[in-house]
Amino acid sequence: MNRLKISIYYLQELNYRLAYAIVGTFFLFSTTYTYKQSLIFIFLPKGLSHFVSTGLTEIFFTYIQLCTIFSFSFGFGITLIQLYLFLRPGLYAFEAKIIFNLFITAIIFYICLYIFLFPIITKILWELFSTYSQNFTAIDLTFEPRLHDYLSHLQQLNKILILSFPCLIALNILQTYTSRQTWVKYRGIAYITAFSIAALITPPDVLSQTLIGFPLIIFYEIQLQIWSLYEGYKKQLLIRQPIKSHKDPYRHKKQS
């Protein structure tokens, strides 16, 4: 009977925490929808004055899509935090500390990513592709960007940035349980895996896959170099440690 009461209590607590996450997600959705035009203005590239819409319901569904992505991204983080708070009493101290450090690292990582790196990547990609779209010298063509297409590209970039942190964690876990010689030996398989991941999260074109797969390969090589430097540093520490002399207790008894 006591076990049943405890189970009901924990189920009620889990329902409450999930309800908090759902209410928070809907609150974020309503807030972002209220300020939807200001939110789009933040993501506008510099120098762009207008977008083109060709469908009757395109603007409405574009607003809905933008607010849904924004609110559900934050809602997913709120849900993970609520699950951590629910499971924390049953975890060991070191497990709770590891998960807490992961949450803090992820928050700092995504804040720095979206505040500093995301505007730079958006600006570079916009200038790169808009230059080729506007330079029509042979014939008279006018480049008119569509709002839906622009936000679709931002959504793909957002998906890539969201998956970057889990990829880093997965590489670090593999690094912990494998040897550096294995990474060097199967380097070609790692390259193929990087481009396979890029093919799954990008449109089916060579340029998008290259823009995603090439940074993954660079990070893979950086991990190898950092790993080799760390192992060399540990070897130097072991060499510099003093050799402890072990006394023989039987010899000491014989002398006494």
UniProtKB/TrEMBL annotation:
GO cellular component: TAT protein transport complex
Domain of life: Eukaryota
GO molecular function: proton motive force dependent protein transmembrane transporter activity
Residues of the signal peptide: none
Membrane-crossing residue ranges in chain numbering: 20-43, 63-87, 99-121, 156-174, 186-204, 210-230
Compartments it resides in: Membrane
Coiled-coil spans in chain: none
Membrane keyword on record: yes
A Gene Ontology biological process term: protein transport by the Tat complex
Alphabetic keyword roster: Membrane, Mitochondrion, Transmembrane, Transmembrane helix
Lipid bilayer topology: Multi-pass membrane protein
UniProt key word Membrane: yes
InterPro entries membership: TatC (IPR002033)
Family of this protein: Belongs to the TatC family.
The protein's name in its UniProt record: SecY-independent transporter protein
Species annotation: Pterygophora californica
